[in-house]
Amino acid sequence: MLINQNTQQPLRPEDIQVGSLTFAMPEGMKEEDHDFQNQIAKAALMLVRLRPENIKDKKELDWSVDGIVAFSKICTHVGCPINLYEQQTHHVLCPCHQSTFDLSDGGRVVFGPGRPRPSAAADQGQ
Ligand code: FES
Fold first, then answer.
1. Half-sphere exposure of residue 107, counting CA atoms within 13 Å on the CB side?
2. CA of 8 to the centre of ligand 1 (A)
3. Is the pLDDT of residue 94 over 70?
4. Is the CB of 106 within 6 Å of ligand 1?
């Protein structure tokens, strides 16, 4: 089960409003766990509910549920947590080097050094 990262409450699809972005994480992770920061770095998610007509990459409809799509919160550049969302454009911004991703277009990089998807080197922490 996923929980809202801010409220720590269980997330239901109806909790996610159209156009809104919700930060989520798996239930059961606790800040007092010795490797919490490492765990949350790998598991943090962004959930956004989009209207079908606002989804540019129609393949995204295949992996959405009721218009809700999930993306890793971790930037594909060097791994900073993404934390800014622009509701009108469905763009998210990484504060470290300003990479901008379009959540309505499969997370496509629209600006900055972010990669379309993590490279093998990034996966290995290089
Ligand atoms: S880590 Fe996100 S742009 Fe560099």
1. 22
2. 26
3. yes
4. no
- Which positions ≥6 away from 17 have C-beta within 8 Å? 49
> Which of these, 46, 56, 65, 72, lies nearest to 104 by C-alpha position?
56
113 closest CA partner among 67, 59, 75: 75
Determine the residue type at 66: D
The C-alpha atoms of residue 39 and residue 8 are separated, in whole angstroms, by 16
Domains of the chain plus CATH, in order, are: 2-123 (2.102.10.10)
pLDDT in tens, 52-61: 888 888 887 7
Judge contact between 82 and 76, C-beta under 8 A. Answer: no
101: confidence class by pLDDT, cuts 50, 70, 90: very high
Q: Does ligand 1 come within 6 angstroms of the Cβ of 122? A: no
pTM of the model: 0.84
The two most distant CA atoms of the chain are separated, in Å, by: 44
